[in-house]
Design goal:
The protein is about 30% helix and about 25% strand. The chain is of the alpha+beta class. A hairpin with an 8-residue loop joins strand 4 and strand 5. It starts with a helix and ends in a 9-residue tail after the last strand.
Length: about 150
């Protein structure tokens, strides 16, 4: 009888931990980070480590804050918690989330310089459940992102 109780308790505990990992619980912070926090982390990463060289140029836009970035690039960001876009075949399968390897993707589309051509960056940033950088793919574009009607 005691073995059944211990086995049941252990199964429930492992199931609970596995479930929290699958749905993106950040263990180090003891909470879930919502979409706005994940997008903010992706923007901060892009501002701190821009994909272009830091060459002084009057054309390059120097964003001083996340708020300024968001004001200038209103439809900049999409978060992919389940279908991870171009990363789906690159990152580990979703079933490994049970073990805590949760990865989501934030797509950023933003203006990095004033003049065309190639004045917009499209960046896909993979992050873990705590908003820490995993990987980034970047491409240049000459047009702003067209918002998808919902």
């Amino acid at each position: 009888m005691t073995i059944i109780v211990i086995a049941s308790a252990l199964t429930l505990a492992i199931g609970f931990i596995g479930y929290r990992n699958v749905v993106g619980f950040c263990n180090s912070q003891g909470r879930y980070l919502d979409d706005a926090e994940m997008i903010r982390q992706a923007i901060l990463y892009s501002l701190q480590k821009p994909p272009h060289e830091r060459v002084p140029s009057p054309d390059v836009i120097q964003y001083r804050s996340v708020a300024e970035f968001m004001d200038r690039n209103r439809d900049c960001c999409i978060i992919h918690r389940h279908d991870r876009g171009e990363f789906e075949n690159v990152l580990a399968d979703r079933w490994v989330r049970i073990f805590g390897w949760y990865v989501l993707v934030v797509d950023l589309w933003y203006q990095y310089k004033e003049a065309a051509p190639d004045n917009f960056y499209e960046a896909s940033i993979a992050m873990n459940s705590c908003g820490q950088f995993v990987e980034r793919h970047v491409s240049l574009n000459s047009r702003p992102r067209v918002p998808i009607e919902k």
